[in-house]
Amino acid sequence: MELRSQTVPPQDPEAPPPEGAPHMTSVEEIVHTFEAADAQPVDLSGYAAEDWFTMGLFWVMTLLVFMQFFTRYVMNDSLAWTEELATYCLIGVVFIGASMCVRKSRHIQVDLLYRYLPHGPARVLSTLVDVLRTAFLGYAAWLVWKYIGIVGDEPMTTIEWNKNYVYWAALLGFVLMSGRSVQVTWQNWRNGYSILERPEAFESFDD
Description:
This protein has 207 residues and is mainly alpha-helical. The protein has helices at 27-39, 49-73, 80-103, 119-151, 164-191.
């Protein structure tokens, strides 16, 4: 049996790929994608004061965690106070950063019922949710205020600082959440709908 070799003709690199073939992304296309993203103007108007404060607190926490890791595993002489302060920074990030979620309506919500309700009952129920949320956050702020008065000047464990700073951060977070909740409630009332009724209207909502 005689075998004959067949010569495969060279393919033109600029020719379009055959139909059905997978598309291979070139380096030029990837570079163009990054260039197009860099050309977009930077808009920081959607960020509020608590956003910047939370970001700064987050980076302080990151630095403390790095110091804890470096001193423990590299220098074999751990700084115990870094772990405690990093924990307290995380508390501040959670409570103060939560006000950003209230402002942007990004907390977990269940809107299944609103898909089957008429506009009138849905509007009433959504307004009730806004009012109850605001009342709950205000009540939580009042509870933290009372707790600060009860605890008094409790010191931290590894450093001679007052632990009330942590409680004040939580109080600030609840106060900010209460204020933002009032703003969201008023805005929803003016718009005639909330994210529960029309979630698609908030998909690109940046402020």
